């Protein structure tokens, strides 16, 4: 990766150059978005909270591996909610997407050492389109909690692939992935980039950017904290398992280090995929007659 890479400073902002890189490549990578103290606060809170972890579920990658994740719909006021609502995370995404955003969901993705599964090629909008989100005015902030390398299954992206538009998605194992034939054709025109990250680095990416990750065969886990946002103007036209427009109160970056609540599962509306299947899964099941 040689483009779209920046380092967070006190005066970091979405300049015309930053916006141009995001529009061209579908992402920007911001080194050290969270400093060492902030990333430690987040990791310690997540690692010590049993209430959140009891809601974790697994996804079969169709290749013999599994990854764990836990997903919640409301940010709340604990350390994870403050992270999702702070200016350098939510405020930056608002500028990149060109308008007010709200919290669509947050998830902790846990790719454990030696057993962590792969995630197939996909676009987030491949799922979110099915949720009644009419426009691809959506994006995700992927924050590395651990070092992410090619050895432990870092993200792979296809820069510029957001410009091909939404690709049809199909079932792959327990996952939903982009049509493999179309991805093969896209890769004839566009390059592949490995997103290697240090703890605290953050990838801001567009919902139509094609991305995937490989299994983790290394001795090092790869955990990541992801926050998804939707433009307020893109309020979904149907009720589904994620929120429709809910105003989000942003907070100053300084609040991260003063937040006294580690994790509060009670205020998060944690998603149970068994009790409330995703719309995209149900749609695919209907198409294949399950």
TrEMBL record:
<dbReference type="Pfam" id="PF05721">
    <property type="entry name" value="PhyH"/>
</dbReference>
<dbReference type="InterPro" id="IPR008775">
    <property type="entry name" value="Phytyl_CoA_dOase-like"/>
</dbReference>
<protein>
    <submittedName>
        <fullName>Uncharacterized protein LOC109474256 isoform X1</fullName>
    </submittedName>
</protein>
């Amino acid at each position: 990766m040689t483009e779209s890479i920046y380092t967070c400073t006190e005066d970091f902002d979405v300049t015309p150059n930053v916006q141009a890189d995001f529009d061209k490549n579908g992402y920007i990578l911001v080194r050290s978005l969270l400093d060492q103290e902030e990333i430690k606060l987040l990791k310690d809170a997540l690692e010590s909270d049993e209430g959140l972890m009891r809601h974790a579920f697994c996804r079969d990658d169709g290749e013999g591996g599994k990854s764990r994740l836990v997903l919640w719909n409301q940010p709340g006021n604990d350390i994870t909610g403050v992270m999702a609502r702070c200016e350098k995370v939510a405020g930056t995404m608002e500028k990149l997407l060109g308008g007010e955003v709200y919290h669509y969901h947050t998830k902790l993705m846990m790719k454990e050492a030696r057993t962590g599964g792969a995630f197939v090629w996909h676009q987030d909008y491949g799922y979110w389109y099915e949720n009644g989100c009419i426009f691809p005015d959506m994006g995700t902030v992927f924050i590395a909690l651990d070092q992410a390398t090619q050895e432990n299954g870092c993200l792979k992206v296809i820069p510029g692939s957001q410009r091909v538009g939404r690709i049809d998605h199909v079932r792959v194992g327990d996952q939903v992935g982009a049509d493999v034939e179309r991805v093969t054709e896209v890769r004839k025109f566009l390059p592949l980039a490995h997103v290697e990250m240090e703890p605290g680095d953050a990838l801001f990416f567009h919902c139509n950017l094609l991305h995937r990750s490989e299994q983790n065969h290394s001795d090092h886990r790869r955990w990541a904290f992801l926050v998804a946002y939707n433009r307020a103007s893109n309020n979904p036209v149907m009720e589904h398992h994620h929120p429709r427009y809910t105003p989000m109160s942003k907070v100053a970056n300084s609040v991260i280090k003063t937040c006294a609540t580690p994790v509060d599962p009670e205020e998060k509306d944690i998603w149970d995929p068994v009790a409330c299947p995703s719309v995209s899964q149900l749609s695919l099941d209907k198409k294949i007659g399950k």
